[in-house]
Amino acid sequence: MGLRLLILSLMFVVLLVSGCGKQPSDRVVDLAGFESQMLGQHSRYFQEQDHKLSWQQAARAFAQSDYPYGASESIALGIGTDPVWLHFQVNNPTQADAGIRLAVKTPWLDVIDAYIVADNTLIAHINGGDYLPFEQRPMAHENFAFEHGFSSGLSDVYLRVESLGPMAIPIELSSIEQAQQLDLGNAYRYGLLYGMLLALSLYNLLLYLITREKEFGLYSLYLAGFVVNSFSYTGQLHEIITADFGVHFQDWLDCFLMITYSVAGLHFARALLKTKNYAPVLDRVVVWTTIVFPLGILLGAIANQLVFSLLLGFLLNSGFATLFIIMGIRARQAQVDSANLFIIASVTAACCIGISTMAVAGIVPYNTYTFQAIEVGMVFEAIMLAIVLAKRFNLVQQDLAVAEKFAHTDPLTSVNNRRGFQQPAEALFNAAVANNQDVAVLLIDIDHFKRINDQYGHTVGDEVIQLAANCLANSTRKTDLIARWGGEEFIMLLNNTSQAEGRNFAERIRMSLAELRCNTPSGSVNFTVSIGAAGSNQWVCAGKNLNELSLAELIKCADSALYEAKKSGRNRVVELCDACPFTESPVAEK
Ligand SMILES: Nc1nc2c(ncn2[C@@H]2O[C@H](COP(=O)(O)OP(=O)(O)OP(=O)(O)O)[C@@H](O)[C@H]2O)c(=O)[nH]1
After folding, report:
1. Which of 102, 152, 162, 238 could pair with 111 in a Cys bridge, judged by C-beta atoms 3.0 to 4.6 Å apart?
2. Helices and strands per DSSP (H, E), number in the chain
């Protein structure tokens, strides 16, 4: 299944890349029946060298020189480069104005000037970019966008773009109707995506609060970090929250948000795969990566070197995807559970990040799907990792169940220990009181057990205890309770049983236990027990109604009776006498 997925992903990439070399037959954009088009291959471009040009100077430069057309839908020139001029032509063959939206579909662009020229006359100058407060921009949109009615005939459009950030310029021209539909589609897609990721993030935060397992908390941070990061680099954050804080603030915010999810993601992967246990060097590399890069970016911020910090940010983001894959492979070698799922998730995410990056850089065609491939990859990765975490949660629950069982079970005999007895015994006792049923307690103590230990050794002593426990456990009904009460002492709570019935039952088990033989190299060992029995006869115990007694008091009665059994010669059953002062019970002699 994993291999098939990988092949499909590769085919997808090949299909995308194969569309790259195609060139439009006509570079002039025809606005007749126009819907939507990316303009990279319809635009020529050059970079300003020394001083800022006017649109007339730029127009002259385009007319006089043979500047190249863009090789793909998005013209990309790297980080921190000189301002760029672009030129394309549109033709409206009809008599009516053609309402068109021009949008540069990426944020990070600081200053953009668009000049619309017809017959060498400037028809409109539209200025925008991140540097402007939101309400002063040409359109309420996350990217630079404006709408214009192109009049009949040929129009020239000159764009000057200036930015310190990544200079990727995917220009999209669309009819206004089509642009609104694209916006609506985008809003639905992003709503679904963010909703899903945020729900997963919250769910994992809750799991963290319940289990205190840090991988759930880090995963929650990782997802939330990605949403905020995506919100920021698509320009939506600046459209809604930080619109008026200026380009400087926005650039730096984007830069810092960019690294939040990679840092949280790397620590999540460390916690999930427990890298430290089998790959300490790789683990240290990961830890230092998450320290050095953010520190470098911070230093860049202090020195106001945005290009330097952005480069570090991009490096960390691409390094993060690579480290994820390496960690997955190392985990697989170390046979870590769920390493395979982790690898599939991270390879898919890395491919999708690659597609989005290549789309913006103009290496593969730029469209909604290639630009949003990173989100698709992230959702896929999020689902895969959620499956991994669900499995981990299941394991944690199983561990808890095992721990719980051990906390309540005596490891030598596998019957309840005192702790395991307490809660069900209280419930059983209270139910008996509520239902007016009799209830009896037996305390059973092996006689002269110390001698067995001394004569045959502790191992034989243990075997004797196990033998006695098995015999007692096999003698009880499902509704009764048995527990190891101390070293060589057991307790039984007998449901719906009077003291008289309890005494008879105690007599039977006393005789059964006396029959048992424990075979040892130095001969077979037998033993006897003394039993103290206490209970109610017709709901009256020690002169009190059962509902006036507590379970602890009933046990004290049985303890007094056991003390009497030991004192009066052992190997016998003694039952509670009517006058037993249970509140001042003597401690049984052992
Ligand atoms: N082998 C073994 N010995 C245990 C275990 N728990 C307690 N003991 C021993 O059981 C012995 C109990 O001795 P005592 O309390 O003197 O009681 P006793 O020898 O049975 O004498 P009476 O109860 O008076 O008949 C002690 O020596 C404990 O070390 C156990 O799990 N395994």
Report:
1. 162
2. 17, 20
